[in-house]
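Could someone model zinc ion with this protein?
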Amino acid sequence: MCDIDIDETCDVWVEKTVKARKEHQCHSCHLTIEPGKEYLRLFAVFEGQVSTEKICASCRRDFEAFKAEHNQYYYPSQVDLMLQNCIDDAETFLESAKWRRRLKQLERRRERSKLQVSTDTGRMSAKNPVKSNAPKEGSHDG
Ligand SMILES: [Zn+2]
Ligand SMILES: [Zn+2]
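Reply:
Sure, complex below.
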């Protein structure tokens, strides 16, 4: 494994498995974490800065794999930096391939998350100009 060394150590680092009660967004891949699904919540304090990040089950597997190999953790929003680091520093082809596969899967989830967003806003696009009986713009009070 690569000897990655994160010199910034958090003062507080708490990991907790939580069941989503409402929709959340994964900080690693940006996919929606649906209500009822389990996710990992990370609570960290670093130099007085509090941050909470959430990761979906798929990203958690990458996170756990990384932790097991390096005895280090990372902010989920920085996952690609960490995986890239492992790929660049890998000593063997097999090792770099392993992390490259994870990075690729992460990118695929990111692509999917973009689609998720675009179906939401897609309706608003000018593809089908909507003929509506919406009232004409009037004067707004207040
Ligand atoms: Zn994710
Ligand atoms: Zn590594």
